[in-house]
Design goal:
With about 110 residues, the chain is mainly beta. The protein is built from 2 helices and 7 strands. A 7-stranded mixed sheet has the order 1-4-7-6-5-2-3. The radius of gyration is 14 Å and the shape is globular.
Length: about 110
Amino acid sequence: MEKYYYSCDGGALALGNETFCTHYMNNYGDGEHEVYIKKRGESFPRLDFGVSFDEVYHFEGSIQGTFNIYSYDCLRSRERENPENILTTLTGRYGIYSFKHCGDMLLEYWDEDD
């Protein structure tokens, strides 16, 4: 599982590319937080000690295409073009979840058939 760190002053994770930028709320607020990229077959993090999925995660939406995960949610368009502000680039269909009570986020890869 890949893990990156993003910062926010708008309480969100910014995703996009040269033609769009969208924000997914982290259900926590500002600060520096983790973002995980879960591939097929990997376990969801933080589901130990008998906690349920719904106790840890909140579904925020999904995204499909080729898009970047940005290091900061309040970047201007010209700042989003700078490779230093791109954590990684993904292609495919992903479900987006926030971790409850901490601001961390998870993107889960979904096949086209999911």
